[in-house]
Amino acid sequence: MDNIYLFMIIALAFLAIADLVVGVSNDAVNFLNSAIGSKAISFNTIMIVASVGIAFGAMSSSGMMEVARKGIFNPGEFFFAEIIIIFMAVMITDILLLDFFNTLGMPTSTTVSIVFELLGAAVAVSLLKIWAADGSFADLSMYINTDKATEIILGIILSVIIAFTIGALIQFIARLLITFRFEDKPKWRGAIFGGLALTAIVYFILIKGLKSANLFGGIITDYVAQQPELFILSNLIFWSIISRIFTGVFKWNIYTVIIVVGTFALAMAFAGNDLVNFIGVPIAALQSFQDWQGTGIPASEYTMESLSAAVRTPVMLLLLAGIIMIITLWFSSKARSVVKTSVDLSRQNQGEEKFQPNFLSRQVVKYSIKVFDKVNDVFPKSLQKKVNQQFAQTYDYSLTSKVKDLPAFDLVRAAVNLMVASVLISIATSMKLPLSTTYVTFMVAMGTSLADRAWGTESAVYRVAGVFNVIGGWFLTAIIAFSAAALVALIIHFGGIIAVGFLLLFAAILITRNYLNHRKSNRLAKLEYGLKRAESSSIQGVIEESADNITSVIKRSNKIYTHAIDGLARHDLEMLKKSKKQVLKLSAEIDDLRDNIFYFIKNLDENNIGASNFYLNILDYLQDIAQSLEYIGKISYKHVNNNHKKLTYSQIKELKELDIEMESLFDKTKVAFEDRQFQKIAEVLAHKEDMFNLLTQKISRQITRTRGEESSPKNTTLYFNILTETKDLVTATLNLMEIYYQEYDSNIQPATL
Fold first, then answer.
1. For the whole model, what pTM was predicted?
2. Is the residue at 750 inside a domain?
3. Does residue 574 share a domain with residue 640?
4. Within a domain: 528
5. C-alpha distances out from residue 285 to 88, 575, 615, 667, Å
6. Which backbone phi and psi does 264 adopt, to 5 degrees?
7. Mapping DSSP to helix (H, G, I), strand (E, B) and coil, where does residue 595 land?
8. Rounded Cα–Cα distance for residues 525 and 585 (Å)
9. Helices 164-178 and 187-204 sit at what angle, rounded to 10 degrees?
10. Residue 680 and residue 577 share a domain
11. Which of 35-44, 121-130, 279-288 has the lowest mean pLDDT?
């Protein structure tokens, strides 16, 4: 029997490593958001600063494994055999849950997940004990402290309201005083701002980041606790002077300094406080095993009062955990995906929106605009004008393909994000308020975005929808964590070691699959066949630049059309479904090109306006191609999915003949664009009439069959629709080639933006 529990302890050790990886991947957004979004320093420098912060936080951590000992359940009421089930259920659930959110690129709270998993697993085991003892539901209070769950839910609500409101207010004031032209403002303003921000961050480091460290025998932390007002005032004066020296003598950008120090502080606080979220449960399990082993008491009879005592984690384990966290930070693509979600929702400039608007976001934006207009009417026009001047900025109409290379927001907003988050978390820690670090940092960033007018009419519904999705995910975290951990605990209880093995295998397969799918999606996003946005400023430049796009569209169109015909001939629903999916992706990419047209035209000079007309025509023809393919795919899928009668042999034979001709057309077109041999287009256009004659001929044959032996209305309708849409497809393809043939001039050097 001892071997079973030894196996579970070893499994928990590996689960701890996996939990560190998935946990850091999600929590990295807390301290990377501002630095990455502002591009204050290079990415490698950001990672180095964050890594040093994590290392320092891990070393300064007390290592108190409080996460399993915070009154979520009463360890003395459980036996070792039951405790180990709870811990195993918690770790398996936590890894799967956090990996799920990481795959979606959604930030959540690792503290909330671990607490509700402990609560769920403990409730499940407690109910089993009550049921076995013929007790009542009221006896649950002996085992569980539900106050912790209430506190966490309150923490979510408080974090959302307080962090968002305070972040918006402070950013509004900061922008009024500093504006977007902060480089032109007097140095003393930057010095005062630097003094405030650095004081807040230093206070945060001592209160939150190093709250468990025994600095100089506790003298510093005791002084801060006893004389907070004097400490803050003296630091404000000191750091204001230092900031003035930085800006005046060393010519440093004080906002960059704030961002670097703030990133370090948040990374350190994360490692110092949240590290135990990932390894606390496995450590508690190991200590429980050590306490029980050798006692001679059966695992089902040995009570776990020892868990109530505070136990310090060995320093080497903390250092090892810190190293794993740093490695994950550098190499986790999912961490960057989570950070990207937060940065995209708060960016100042336009770009691709990850979230789609919903009813709630539309209503919130609609009524917010009305309220804003009413409030605006109260203030004098002169005051409104003055405020608008302070918020005036030079809009960058860079092509959206280049937006990713631009900062999402400026240094002032990044500094405010870090300062406000530090202040709020510090105050909450001092006052024992259950504010979550993840929730605070995210909502502060959203509040500052709103105040900075980043959520304009062009993007508000998307951004608000994104925020609602993230907040909904936070509550979902608690619900899923509780339910899933309870279910896993029950499975382990009834299934024993076999169930543990099955669950571990299931977790490994699921995580591996998510990893491979995530890597595949990242790889696909970088493939060359993805359509590129135009950045040329002349017709010849657009011709040269878009040739790869045309090649890609033609290749994919050929494949989609063939799959649709083959799927119809074979009544293969999966093939048709795949074809539909491919054409929808193609349509989305073409729509994305159209979304970029505003910025493309904005970047043209007066001498190259003709390039915009040419580019618009190209996009129109590409859209026509996609629409024809989409319709063919849709009607074919619908026919087979509804189990309608198969096409006749003659119809299938003629469609395959047509497919061969279409393949020939597509291949010749592809060669012309792929090799930049635009003169070959003439050869294709010479056979234009042949293609249309072939289609007319097949339509005529079907008319004859319909008047004679044809007896299926569904088949006839489908066949006619395919032929007419194929005719539109041919027309769009040939028109596309014709416009290239007419405008191409090899003697003109392409001009680019």
1. 0.77
2. no
3. yes
4. no
5. 9, 50, 64, 64
6. -60, -45
7. helix
8. 12
9. 160
10. yes
11. 279-288
